[in-house]
Sequence to fold (255 residues):
Amino acid sequence: MMTFSYRFPRMIFLFLLTIPLLYLPASPVFQTAHAAGKVVIANGDWAPYQGKDLPGGGPASIIVTEAFATQGLDVEFRYMPWARGLNLTREAQTDATMLYSYNEERGQSFLYSDAIISLDTVVFHLKDKKFHWENPEDLKGMTLGAVLEYDYGFVREDSGYTLDRVASGEFNYRKLAAGRIDALMEERLVGLETARQEGLGDRITYHAKPIKSVPYHLIVSKENPRAEEIIQTFNKGLSQLKADGRLNQILQITP
Fold:
C-alpha cells in the first residue's frame, strides 16, 4: 500500500507536466528552416527558366540559390503545382515561392523581392489558323488557355475575357492542337519550349505583340513573421550577384 500511494501521485504529476506540451503550436516550416540556416521555397516547372529536370533547377533557381548563399543560407526547393505552391506560401508553410509578377490581388498577401528577370507574355496559336490582335478588345470572344493562379495583365475574367484555366500549362498546348481553345497565353521562351516538348513545335507559333512585359520576383507571405527578413536577405544577395556580374552570367544559360 505504501508503494502504491507513493507512485500514483508521482505518475499523475508527470502526466500533468506533459499536458501543456500537447497544446503547443507546431513550429511553422519557416522557423525550422531558418533555425537550420535554410530557406524552403515552393518551385515549379517553367522551362527554360526553372524546373526540377533542368541543370541546377534552371537559371532562375540558380539565381535564387546563389543569392541566398552569399548571405550564408542554403535553399531547399520543393516542386509542386503552381496553385499549391502559392497557397502553401500564402499560409507561410513554405518560406517563399517563385517566379511571380506583381498584381494588386497578390500584393495584398505577399511581399515582393527586387526583380529577378523581366519577361514577355505572348499569345500562341496554330500556324494554320489566321490570328491577329492589335487592341485588347480583339482578344475578347476567344477562348484563351491559361493556368491557375497565373496573372495575364489586362486579360482577366472580370474584364470580360474567356480564360480556360488548367493546373499545368502543357495541357493547354494539347487543347490548342485539338481545337478546344482558340489560343493560349505564355511567356515567349516557355511557350516555345513547351510546344517543342509536346511535339507541336512545327504546328504552333506566337504573335509578336506581348500582352504583358513585366519583371518577375521571389515572393513571401505577409503572414510569415520573417517576411521582411527573407526579402531583405534575398535582395542583398541579388544585389551582390548583379555587382560582380554573376547575374548576367547565369542569365546567359537561358536560350
Remarks:
- The two ends are 83 Å apart (CA to CA).
- The CA atoms of residues 45 and 52 lie 7 Å apart.
- Residues 2-22 form the longest helix (21 residues).
- Residues 1-33 have pLDDT under 50 and may be disordered.
